[in-house]
Amino acid sequence: MRRFFFDLLVGNVVKIDPGGMVFENARATFVVADEMAKHLFVWRDDLRDRDAWIRVRNDGGREIYRAAVWAESAEKAGWDQA
Hints:
It holds the Pfam family DUF6894. Residues 3-68 form the DUF6894 domain. InterPro entries: DUF6894 (IPR054189). It comes from Bradyrhizobium zhengyangense. The protein is 22% helix and 33% strand. With 82 residues, the protein is of the alpha+beta class. Strands 1, 2, 3, 4 and 5 form a 5-stranded antiparallel sheet that branches. It starts with a strand and ends in a 14-residue tail after the last strand.
Protein backbone atom coordinates (compact mmCIF):
# COMPACT_ATOMS: atom_id res chain seq x y z
CA MET A 1 0.00 0.00 0.00
CA ARG A 2 1.18 3.49 -0.80
CA ARG A 3 0.55 6.91 0.68
CA PHE A 4 -1.09 9.67 -1.38
CA PHE A 5 -1.48 13.35 -0.53
CA PHE A 6 -4.46 15.60 -1.30
CA ASP A 7 -3.40 19.25 -1.57
CA LEU A 8 -5.74 22.19 -2.00
CA LEU A 9 -4.70 24.64 -4.73
CA VAL A 10 -6.44 28.02 -4.89
CA GLY A 11 -4.91 30.29 -7.52
CA ASN A 12 -1.25 30.65 -6.55
CA VAL A 13 -1.77 29.35 -3.00
CA VAL A 14 -1.09 25.72 -2.12
CA LYS A 15 -2.27 24.11 1.13
CA ILE A 16 -0.15 20.99 1.49
CA ASP A 17 -1.68 17.82 2.92
CA PRO A 18 0.82 16.89 5.65
CA GLY A 19 -0.35 13.35 6.38
CA GLY A 20 -1.97 11.91 3.30
CA MET A 21 -3.95 8.68 3.12
CA VAL A 22 -2.96 5.11 2.33
CA PHE A 23 -4.49 3.39 -0.71
CA GLU A 24 -3.87 0.09 -2.41
CA ASN A 25 -4.79 1.41 -5.85
CA ALA A 26 -3.83 4.86 -7.20
CA ARG A 27 -7.06 5.05 -9.23
CA ALA A 28 -9.07 5.05 -6.00
CA THR A 29 -7.52 8.42 -5.16
CA PHE A 30 -9.20 9.93 -8.25
CA VAL A 31 -12.64 9.12 -6.83
CA VAL A 32 -11.67 10.52 -3.43
CA ALA A 33 -10.31 13.75 -4.96
CA ASP A 34 -13.49 14.20 -7.02
CA GLU A 35 -15.63 13.73 -3.91
CA MET A 36 -13.48 16.19 -1.93
CA ALA A 37 -13.86 18.77 -4.72
CA LYS A 38 -17.64 18.34 -4.82
CA HIS A 39 -17.81 18.65 -1.04
CA LEU A 40 -15.76 21.87 -1.12
CA PHE A 41 -18.02 23.32 -3.80
CA VAL A 42 -21.07 22.73 -1.60
CA TRP A 43 -19.63 23.80 1.74
CA ARG A 44 -16.98 26.40 0.85
CA ASP A 45 -18.64 29.18 -1.13
CA ASP A 46 -15.39 31.15 -0.94
CA LEU A 47 -13.86 28.58 -3.31
CA ARG A 48 -16.61 28.81 -5.92
CA ASP A 49 -15.81 30.78 -9.06
CA ARG A 50 -12.11 30.59 -8.24
CA ASP A 51 -9.31 28.55 -9.68
CA ALA A 52 -9.52 25.86 -6.97
CA TRP A 53 -8.38 22.24 -7.27
CA ILE A 54 -7.65 19.15 -5.23
CA ARG A 55 -4.24 17.87 -6.32
CA VAL A 56 -3.28 14.24 -5.69
CA ARG A 57 0.42 13.49 -5.22
CA ASN A 58 2.04 10.10 -4.83
CA ASP A 59 4.56 9.34 -2.08
CA GLY A 60 7.34 10.48 -4.42
CA GLY A 61 5.77 13.94 -4.70
CA ARG A 62 4.64 13.56 -8.32
CA GLU A 63 1.21 14.92 -9.22
CA ILE A 64 -1.02 12.17 -10.58
CA TYR A 65 -4.46 13.82 -10.69
CA ARG A 66 -6.39 17.06 -10.23
CA ALA A 67 -10.06 17.54 -9.43
CA ALA A 68 -11.60 20.96 -9.99
CA VAL A 69 -13.92 22.52 -7.41
CA TRP A 70 -16.82 23.12 -9.78
CA ALA A 71 -20.57 22.93 -10.19
CA GLU A 72 -22.03 19.80 -11.80
CA SER A 73 -23.97 22.03 -14.18
CA ALA A 74 -20.90 24.00 -15.27
CA GLU A 75 -18.47 22.84 -17.90
CA LYS A 76 -15.27 21.36 -16.58
CA ALA A 77 -12.05 21.18 -18.57
CA GLY A 78 -9.82 18.25 -17.76
CA TRP A 79 -6.73 19.21 -15.79
CA ASP A 80 -4.50 17.84 -18.51
CA GLN A 81 -6.30 19.90 -21.16
CA ALA A 82 -5.96 23.29 -19.46
